[in-house]
Amino acid sequence: MDIIDFALKTGVAVIAGLCIGLEREFRGKHAGLKTHALVALGASIFIMMSLEFEGAEYADMTRVLSQVIIGIGFIGAGTIMKKGKDVEGLTTAATIWCSAAIGCLSGFGYFKELVVTTILIIFVNFFFSLIERKLMDRKKKEKSKD
Fold first, then answer.
1. Of 7, 26, 45, 118, whose CB is crowded by the most CB atoms within 10 A?
2. Quick check: pTM over 0.85?
3. Alpha-carbon distance 33 to 141, whole Å?
């Protein structure tokens, strides 16, 4: 792999991770800019390293991909907290997992897919939060009437 290809793939992964992290940062979530950028960067590096061994008898690219997914699960699990009856951090954990997927897309060189996926992640986090908040407000109003 040449350094230009490496720089392009890691740079795109970091930029996409920063875009996702920016939305989380604006919402005051624990995992923000640095976390999402680093998760995407790390995932892209692991994928690129596995591609270097493509065709070797002892190498299986899908194993590296699966280990990235599993490893990120542990990071995401650290963001999930139970507070009384409520569970917080599930969306943050899922978003970290998606940032790893973004990094994998970049590592494989699927840049168009990366752009679409990054936009979808930000869309889901931003607009569905608005819908969720309206539904919660409606539930609170209904409970206060009872």
1. 118
2. yes
3. 35
Tell me how far apart the alpha carbons of residues 13 and 39 are, in angstroms, rounded to a whole number. Answer: 9
pLDDT, one tens digit per residue, over 74-127 is 888 888 888 888 888 899 999 999 999 999 999 999 999 999 999 999 999 999
Check residue 133 and give its pLDDT.
84
Distance CA 74, CA 107 (A): 21
pLDDT at 52 (0 to 100)? 86
- Runs of H (alpha helix) within the chain: 3-26, 33-52, 61-77, 90-108, 111-145
- Residue 31, pLDDT > 80, answer yes
Longest CA–CA span in the chain (Å) reads: 68
- Enumerate the β-bridge partners of residue 88: 81
Beta carbons within 8 Å of 125's beta carbon, 6+ residues apart = 20, 23, 24, 27, 91, 95
Contact 95, 121 (CB under 8 A): yes
SS3 83: strand
If you search the block for the tokens 């309206």, which residue do you land on?
Answer: 134
